[in-house]
Amino acid sequence: MCKSGWLELGGSGMVHPNVLKAGGIDPKKYSGFAFGWGIERTIAMKTELPDIRLLFQNDLRFLEQF
DSSP labels for 23-63? Predict the structure, then answer.
């Protein structure tokens, strides 16, 4: 539960032109938008994790808590 403002649960962003090119799509003609709900955001919310980047540091001492 978010008590102090906005809580981001879904991520989004623009698809890199090289990704479109690799998929056979002309990036000069088309662009892409990606979005989704990551499990790490739910973990951060349920455990009150102060910074989601902690999940991506590959520190086993920290990650083994989950």
Answer: TT--TTT---EEEEE-HHHHHHHHHT-S-GGGGGS--HHHH
pLDDT tens for the chain, 66 residues: list them: 556 677 777 888 999 999 999 999 999 999 999 998 878 888 888 888 888 888 888 888 888 887
**Domain residues of the chain, as ranges?**
10-63
Give the Cα-Cα-Cα angle 6, 1, 11 (nearest 5 degrees).
Answer: 50
CB 41 within 8 Å of CB 10: yes
Residue 39: name the closest of 61, 10, 14 by CA. Answer: 10
Distance CA 16, CA 57 (A): 24
Q: Which two tokens stand for residue 10?
A: 């879904």
